[in-house]
Amino acid sequence: MSVSHILTTLSKLERLHRSLLDLSMKKTDIIKENNMAKLDETLKNEQAHVAAIERLEQQRLVEVTDYLRAQGCAPTEAPTVSQLIEVAKGEEQAQLRAVRERLTTIIAELKQRNDLNQKMIFQSLQFVNITLDLLQPRPEQMNYGNTANGRVAQPMKKSYFESQA
User: Fold this and answer.
1) Which of 48, 49, 64, 81 is the most buried (most CB within 10 A)?
2) What secondary structure letter does DSSP report for 142?
3) Coiled-coil segments, which residues (predicted)?
């Protein structure tokens, strides 16, 4: 087992993460447009990317484990690229560091973009809930008989939106 196979797998992971980042950026625009059909399509595409990333990650784990064993090291349960860098020598070590740095940068950008998208969706849901509350307020708690103060409960508030018009 050579580092070149691992570098190839890491490069594929980098491409998939970059593609996922591009999808995430498009999703931001789709959320702004409030286009639910495109959002659904984008989410399905993202799920396919995540599944492919998981498969490649499993392949990377096997390759790194095999390489570390071939070098006489006892790999951990989930060997990391950092462990691989410690064992690698010369040019391979420099290439691994460069790929790790690029992947780390892409993943950080992806996390930041996903946080933004999550906040935008949460705010959109809050707006929908506020609008629904304005159009059809929730009825106050119903009590049987008089209240503790001896007053009769007030009638329900009317909605601004008449649903039976």
Assistant:
1) 64
2) P
3) none
Mean pLDDT to the nearest integer, 127-134: 82
Other C-beta atoms lying within 10 Å of the C-beta of residue 156: 11
| Spatial separation of the C-alpha atoms in residues 75 and 90, rounded to whole Å | 21
Taking only the tens place, the pLDDT of each residue in 41-62 is: 999 999 999 999 999 999 999 9
Q: For position 118, what pLDDT does the model report?
A: 93
Give CA–CA dist 121/114, Å, rounded: 10
96, 7 in Cβ contact below 8 A?
yes
Residue matched to tokens 């039976």: 164
Q: Which residues fall within 8 angstroms of residue 36, CB to CB, at 6 or more apart?
A: none
Return the higher-pLDDT residue of 110 and 130: 110
How far, CA to CA in Å, does 21 sit from each of 12, 31, 107, 108? 14, 15, 8, 10
**Amino acid (1-letter code) at residue 61:** L
CB 88 within 8 A of CB 3: yes
